[in-house]
Amino acid sequence: MASRSYANLFDLASGGDLLDIPRTPRALPRIMTVPGIISDLDGCGANDGDSDVSSSSCRERKIIVANMLPLHAKRDTENSKWCFSLDEDSILLQLKDGFSSDTEVIYVGSLKVDIDASEQEEVAQRLLDDFNCVPTFLSHDIQKKFYLGFCKQQLWPLFHYMLPMCPDHGDRFDRILWQAYVSANKIFADKVMEIINPDDDFVWVHDYHLMVLPTFLRKRYNRVKLGFFLHSPFPSSEIYRTLPVRDEILRGLLNADLIGFHTFDYARHFLSCCSRMLGLDYESKRGHIGLDYFGRTIFIKILPVGIHMGRLESVLNLPSTSAKLKEIQEEFEGKKVIVGVDDMDIFKGISLKLLAMEHLLQEDPDMQGKVVLVQIVNPARGSGKDVQEAKKETYLIAQRINDTYGSEEYQPVKLIDRPVPRFEKSAYYAVAECCIVNAVRDGMNLVPYKYLVCRQGTAKLDEALGRKIDSPRTSMLVVSEFIGCSPSLSGAIRVNPWDIDAVADALCLALTMNDSEKQLRHEKHYRYVSSHDVAYWARSFMQDLERACKDHYTKRCWGIGLGLGFRVVSLSPGFRKLSIDHIVSAYKRTSRRAIFLDYDGTVVPQSSINKAPSPEVISMLNALCSDPKNIVFIVSGRGRDSLSDWFSSCQLLGLAAEHGYFLRWSRDSEWESSHLSADLDWKNIAEPVMQLYTEATDGSSIEIKESALVWHHQDADPDFGSCQAKELLDHLESVLANEPAVVKRGQHIVEVKPQGISKGLVAEKVISTMVNRGNPPDFVMCIGDDRSDEDMFESILRSVSCPSLPTTPEIFACTVGRKPSKAKYFLDDTSDVVKLLQGLAASSNPKPRHLAQFQVSFESTI
Hints:
- The chain contains 28 helices and 34 strands.
- By secondary structure, it is α/β, with parallel strands linked by helices.
- The strands form seven sheets. It has a nine-stranded mixed beta sheet, sandwiched between helices. The chain has a nine-stranded mixed beta sheet with strand order 22-34-33-32-23-24-25-26-27, sandwiched between helices.
- Strand 32 (about 780-785), helix 27 and strand 33 form a beta-alpha-beta unit.
- About 45% of the residues are buried.
């Protein structure tokens, strides 16, 4: 049944209750609250006594979640009972080799067969007891809409760069199928929740079928240790952004702690989507790519999966393999064999491969009768018109080639379209002088790796074939640029599969290359494949996941957002929301108050088109300023003319413009400028440089202030703007190295300003002036929203620790938005700031006040 804690979320996401599924019959140990006691979570009931608490709780556990369990299933014809066996070829089973021997691995997923409802409880118990597998038992309707519908007809084509431009070219987005996808992910998540010990277990979710599952788990357990690996390509942002549920899927993935990809290209596309669609920034942190998401750092892992060497070598040692190999050698005696092994789908490029073979025979008649392409076609994983059309085209081209260039004794193309046992594939790999993988788009594709191991052979296979163990081994690979394994095979001949001529030339080169060169390439590839096997991949991923989760319990976590927009905010333990009652209480019992307010993003929203303060804000500021116990300052990066105009009705309000370069204590006092850096000649150097970048970056602009220059790129392309900002930062730091100016990068800006000028300086001046006048502050409040305000927070904390202060004042440093900050408090947005100011204004006791005692020049405090 559906977990109670997820009912509202699921109803919002899918609009229905589709989850009447049986529970995992034997509850595994989950949360240990007191030694020996299992807490009753999520309605599961207490431990039923069948599981060994003491042994399981001390073992390290990994929960592997994937669409399909690594099992074979079939009915016994005699007693009609289900028989199950491990799928030794499943990567999910093989990755266990990367874990320590005392690690318990539990699998959650579906079976490849439909189990009748009356048998599900018995089957689930057997699978848990015998194989440590927890089946999900999706209903036939959900399974069809989830897997054959949303996964195969919408996600799979899109992730392989195929858009549904017309009804005959892919299926348009269907929300019913999306709801089934969410339903299935919810079912998988519920099964994980039934068995997880969230404090200790690591969860590793696999592939595009389960991309929103992390959201369900993260909502239930904010600190769950969760990794995700995508085995398919991730498309460029131009393709991905066409998906109507793009944000939900991105946020689902971002609820993991570590996200893995086969290649940097796939990771780069994902990061670009996060930047363009969610406005998130990323950076390299000690060699690891980290993406900041509401205080959590989501790490990106780039490592292609490997193969299981032992499994392949054991197949090569089978007598059936050596027998088949001898049979193939006899069949193709005197001919060079090219092998291809692909699933039957439109992205594998089988027809393009055949066209290249046709072109090779046409352009090089000497090859006729001497070269054979053996194309093994694995059964299609999906169904649809596109698969049937691809199959029809493949047969037509193969028939045409054989009719044109073949004879009774020679067929240039041998098409094997049937389930081929592993030993037979291994034999073809071992015989072939060249292997070609010509996919137009593929996630990883391990065919080249398997080919290399089979060409290397084993001692037992050498003995069976009468081959010397130390005889040189050769292999040649022709691989598409668009497959995940291509970057790791530097000695392969890389091709654009759409360029038929180039692929034909590559095949010719591979067949005619001298043996010494083939041997060198083979040795290089084999060293990589044998050292970067599936165990290495699993071990490396889990080590990075452990590192990504090490700070989980050093921060405070809480969830925000509804439905699939849920995310966890993770911040330092002392960081909390500023309570209006708390600060008003402190405000009432103090009498010498200093109040510092940032402007943009603090008292007016960043998104506001009209940047002038509202009448409500003006009224509150006047109320605060009228209280003789208060000194109130607006501290902004804006120019003094704008601030003077906007706050002309605030007689007693202090203003600090351009981050404190200009300061005014009240409306009737004069603006005074800082003498820390009176030399502004550097502007003549910096402005032409900024102008160059403005002309080269569409959407960027320069803001010229009296004391500073700011280059804005908020309206530029996110990736190009960010790249140009980094270049501009380096350029300006270089040309201004000997000038009294500093270059800083902020959110969508690069700013050059005088040395020593900061908002923190304003806070220091005001507090020191109050001290010098015999009115040391006993209440200091500072509110801001961006990086420049962090200087104020830091300065206040430093100033109040000064020995000249008789007592330590009440400090309220507050940032706007829940994000990492030097401030101790936060408020969610500008509306919260306004409410707080209203509360303080209502608590003020205004009396006539005089300004002269607080007016001071910069010179007197320097």
